[in-house]
Design goal:
Elements lengths: L2 H4 L3 H7 L6 E5 L2 E5 L7 E4 L5 H6 L1 H11 L2 E3 L3 H6 L16 H4 L5 H12 L3 H7 L18 H15 L7 E5 L5 H10 L2 E6 L2 H13 L6 E5 L12 E7 L10 H11 E14 L7 H6 L9 H5 L7 E8 L1 H17 L1 H8 L1 H19 L3 E10 L12
Helix pairs in contact: 4-17, 9-10, 15-17, 16-17
Length: 391
């Protein structure tokens, strides 16, 4: 195809505006190299996305095209995405047209449905590509040679060390997942723990594990919304929440902190581990439609600025952004090693969708579009903690 045709080819100009490296585009109209240097990869479009769809949302249009197999690349998907996901600020997003998708209800019933739509896909599915701890959150690669399981264990120990646990303390895990953190805390530190979750699949598995591992005298798990904490009459020495506040929704962060504050003892510690953003954003349309309905990534500053309103003092803030990039790449590798099983069980479109999810998230962490922060805070002033950082 001649260069003059490129100027009139909408898709070529569209992709050129968001991809900062040279590449080749193949369509039914022909083939063209975009950029002056050797192409880094080739995009093949079998069925051209609708122009209006492309102008409404870049991520939805291209994401759905990839899911359907209408769009393919000739290089590792993560490597391709990593070349241009730093340009997400240039993606098209018609917020007016996408209002119902971007701004979902934050009431209890709707948020429970949203959480279950992701976490209740099936424990067997997650077991295929998570490690044996069933940890579905950022790991902590303390050593270059750490396996994924070792890194997840290091993450839990990193958190529990920050919480300065002592035998007999009570620990609440808000959004406890399959319970690995609480089980480790009970076994290693002798604490009594309570986990709350909205996922029925996680609740069932964790409940079974508590009985099987002989931890019924130390641990309990409840199907419970965080908003019910303040009226629960429970009280804890320590609270942890890992990868849960992303489901709370902008506008409810104060409510989340209020409920944590109500059940934390004076001087108690709360560690909040969550995906964060550099700036406030409604969220990516494709992720919200297909992966995390209603999910919103808070910025670091909007959480920290609310903390004083609920008696929380900031003790420590740490970024684990690159650790999450590596975690996701491990998950992606595991997912691909079981791709045929997933394909047979879930189908082509689902499999391509999840592969795109894992690869795109890994690239957004690598490009700094999103981050992972741990905030350690105390309820009121605590003068009994060590004066130097120990972890």
């Amino acid at each position: 195809m001649k260069e003059k045709t490129l100027k009139n080819h909408f898709m070529a100009e569209y992709l050129k505006s968001i991809i900062p490296v040279p590449f080749t585009l193949k369509t039914a109209d022909g083939e063209m190299n975009i950029g002056d240097e050797a192409p880094k990869f080739t995009v093949t479009i079998h069925n051209m996305p609708d122009k209006n769809t492309l102008l409404t949302s870049t991520s939805l249009a291209l994401g759905e095209a990839y899911m359907r197999g209408d769009l393919e690349v000739d290089r590792d998907l993560y490597e391709v995405l990593d070349l241009f996901m730093g340009q997400m600020g240039k993606f098209k997003t018609d917020k007016s047209a996408l209002k119902k998708l971007i701004l979902t209800s934050k009431d209890k019933k709707n948020q429970k449905h949203e959480v279950q739509s992701h976490y209740d896909i099936g424990n067997d599915f997650y077991k295929l590509w998570l490690d044996e701890s069933m940890s579905y959150s950022c790991a902590y690669f303390k050593n270059e040679t750490d396996t994924l399981y070792e890194a997840q264990l290091h993450k839990v120990e990193h958190i529990l060390d920050k919480l300065q646990l002592e035998e007999g303390m009570t620990l609440l895990d808000i959004g406890c997942g399959w319970g690995f953190l609480l089980k480790h805390a009970a076994k290693k530190y002798g604490v009594k723990g309570t986990g709350i979750t909205l996922s029925e699949e996680q609740y069932k598995q964790f409940s079974e594990d508590i009985k099987r591992e002989g931890l019924s005298d130390k641990l309990q798990v409840k199907l419970m919304d965080y908003r019910d904490l303040e009226k629960s009459e429970m009280e804890f020495d320590r609270i942890v929440s890992v990868g849960m506040v992303e489901h709370v929704g902008r506008g409810n962060y104060g409510l989340f902190l209020k409920n944590a504050q109500k059940v934390l003892k004076p001087g108690g510690l709360f560690l909040l581990h969550y995906i964060s953003a550099q700036k406030e954003h409604e969220g990516d349309p494709w992720i919200k439609k297909y992966i995390f309905p209603g999910g919103v990534v808070p910025s670091l500053r909007e959480i920290i600025q609310l903390m004083p309103d609920y008696e929380f003092y900031t003790l420590d803030v740490e970024s684990l952004r690159r650790h999450y990039n590596k975690t996701l790449l491990c998950w992606l590798q595991n997912f691909r090693s079981h791709r045929e099983e997933i394909l047979e069980e879930k189908g082509e479109e689902f499999t391509r969708m999840w592969e795109l999810y894992l690869a795109s998230c890994a690239s957004t962490f690598h490009n700094g579009i999103i981050d992972l922060h741990q905030i350690l805070m105390s309820k009121g002033v605590n003068n009994d903690l060590p004066m130097t950082r120990t972890v």
